[in-house]
């Protein structure tokens, strides 16, 4: 891996992409420390404890890289865009017009992306209004006004600033995807989680549980190794191509394979499930009513209700996203079109049914593994009373994004005859 990274800096084009990605992520981290106008900076320091621990505010603060606790320009993070993407992908299944757009190739995908942007702005605006009232409710604990002047012009200024911050992040993420290395949105979430790593190390080092303090490095190594093993696991379906006559030229047949990964959806189901499960506690924190507080406590990230709900959503989204990214019918038609077939399986519909059956068997253990890793830190906190700072969702996202980024970096290097570490 280190040799791959070192080789990347020897290529001018890749070096520029890495520099551009680093510059965008640095701007993202800078914006997470710039407070929005109209906020009492002295009161912000007093409400930091509201976002500590393992409550829902601490969970949301982790995904914003600490920007929410600082009431910064990028306090909302990129989560409104992810929520909008979830809504659009779900609507694609039930709305025929969106399904038709998705099948139109790049033109249709560009239109869906535009709809996602519009929905992101609406969600960010609504969420900003809710957070303004949440910040105002911290006045009692802070002992002073968090919002300097709570009137219509100042509230509108804060809401517009937070919404503009999310739109700016969305644009920066798309720039990283186009001109940098890897998926820009995933890299921003990766940077947000990694920026909290010093606090996580401090929480581990200051833990009173000596057994946990000793076992923690071994647990982390075991989890990382298992995630890499499952993420890279695949079943190779042999494919045989017959000889074909194209014009006046005969192409020779050959044998290759169709790789079906155990976890073809990657970390997307984990991000989607975390976004869905964060919605009820967020509403409970914003409303500040007894019944809303009960809902917030019911779906606390350390409660078993949250673990069960998140696990179910992870399994459902794994199957859903796998079905979106890999269509057995289209794969079977493409194999038949180019003269390919799977030995022992008839072309056409039998091939599609064979691929669908294999994919269902592969996806199930992959989905269970994602759910188990997401629930592991919660079980350690509740059962072993361990001071585990990061949740399983954060660990899966960090490792998954790192693997995907290294794969894209390796693909760039292999085009220039460099050897990477992923075989």
List the topology elements:
Elements: H1 2-8, H2 12-31, H3 41-46, H4 56-63, H5 79-94, H6 96-102, H7 106-137, H8 139-142, H9 152-179, H10 184-194, H11 197-205, H12 210-232, E1 234-241, E2 244-246, E3 249-251, E4 254-261, H13 268-277, H14 279-287, H15 290-298, H16 304-325, H17 328-337, E5 340-341, H18 349-383, H19 392-414
Helix pairs in contact: 1-19, 2-9, 2-10, 5-6, 5-7, 5-13, 6-7, 7-9, 7-14, 9-10, 10-19, 12-19, 13-16, 14-15, 16-18, 17-18, 18-19
What does this molecule look like?
It is a single chain. The chain is mainly α and 423 residues long. The protein has two domains: 1-195 and 398-423, Preprotein translocase SecY subunit (Orthogonal Bundle), CATH 1.10.3370.10; 197-390, SecY subunit domain (Preprotein translocase SecY subunit). It is built from 19 helices and five strands. It has helices at 2-8, 12-31, 41-46, 56-63, 79-94, 96-102, 106-137, 139-142, 152-179, 184-194, 197-205, 210-232, 268-277, 279-287, 290-298, 304-325, 328-337, 349-383, 392-414; strands at 234-241, 244-246, 249-251, 254-261, 340-341. Strands 4-1-5 form a three-stranded antiparallel beta sheet. It has a two-stranded antiparallel sheet with strand order 2-3. A hairpin with a 2-residue loop joins strand 2 (244-246) and strand 3 (249-251). Helix 5 packs across helix 7 (106-137) and helix 6 (96-102) packs across helix 7 (106-137). The longest helix has 35 residues, at 349-383. The chain is globular, with a radius of gyration of 24 Å. The chain starts with a helix and ends in a 9-residue tail after the last helix.
């Amino acid at each position: 891996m280190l040799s791959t990274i070192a080789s990347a800096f020897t290529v001018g084009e890749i070096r520029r992409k890495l520099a551009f990605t680093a510059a965008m992520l640095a701007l993202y981290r800078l914006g997470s420390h710039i407070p929005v106008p109209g906020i009492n900076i002295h009161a912000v320091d007093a409400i930091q404890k509201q976002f500590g621990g393992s409550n829902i505010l601490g969970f949301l603060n982790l995904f914003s890289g600490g920007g929410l606790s600082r009431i910064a320009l990028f306090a909302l993070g990129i989560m409104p865009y992810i929520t909008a993407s979830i809504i659009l992908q779900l609507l694609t299944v039930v709305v025929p017009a969106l399904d038709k757009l998705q099948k139109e190739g790049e033109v249709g995908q560009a239109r869906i992306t535009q709809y996602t942007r519009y929905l992101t702005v609406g969600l960010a605006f609504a969420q900003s209004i809710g957070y303004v009232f949440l910040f105002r409710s911290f006045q009692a604990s802070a002992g002073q006004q968090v919002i300097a002047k709570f009137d219509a012009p100042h509230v509108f200024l804060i809401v517009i600033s937070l919404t503009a911050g999310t739109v700016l992040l969305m644009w920066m993420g798309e720039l990283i995807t186009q001109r940098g290395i890897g998926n820009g949105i995933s890299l921003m979430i990766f940077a947000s989680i990694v920026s909290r790593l010093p606090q996580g190390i401090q929480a581990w080092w200051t833990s009173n549980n000596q057994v946990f303090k000793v076992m923690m490095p071994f647990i982390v190594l075991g989890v990382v190794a298992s995630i890499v093993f499952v993420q890279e696991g695949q079943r190779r379906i042999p494919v045989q191509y017959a000889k074909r006559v194209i014009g006046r030229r005969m192409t020779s047949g050959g044998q290759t394979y169709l790789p079906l990964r155990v976890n073809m959806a990657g970390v997307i189901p984990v991000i989607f499930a975390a976004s869905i499960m964060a919605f009820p506690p967020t509403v409970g924190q914003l409303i500040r009513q007894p019944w809303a507080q009960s809902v917030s406590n019911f779906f606390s990230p350390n409660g078993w209700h949250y673990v069960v709900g998140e696990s179910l959503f992870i399994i459902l989204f794994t199957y859903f996203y796998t079905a979106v990214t890999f269509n057995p019918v289209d794969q079977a038609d493409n194999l038949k079109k180019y003269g390919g077939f799977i030995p022992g399986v008839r072309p056409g519909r039998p091939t599609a049914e064979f691929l669908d059956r294999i994919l269902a068997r592969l996806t199930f253990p992959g989905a269970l593994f994602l759910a188990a890793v997401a629930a592991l830190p919660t079980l350690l906190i509740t059962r072993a009373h361990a001071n585990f700072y990061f949740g399983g969702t954060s660990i899966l996202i960090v490792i998954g994004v790192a693997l995907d980024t290294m794969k894209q970096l390796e693909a760039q290097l292999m085009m220039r005859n460099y050897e990477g570490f992923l075989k």
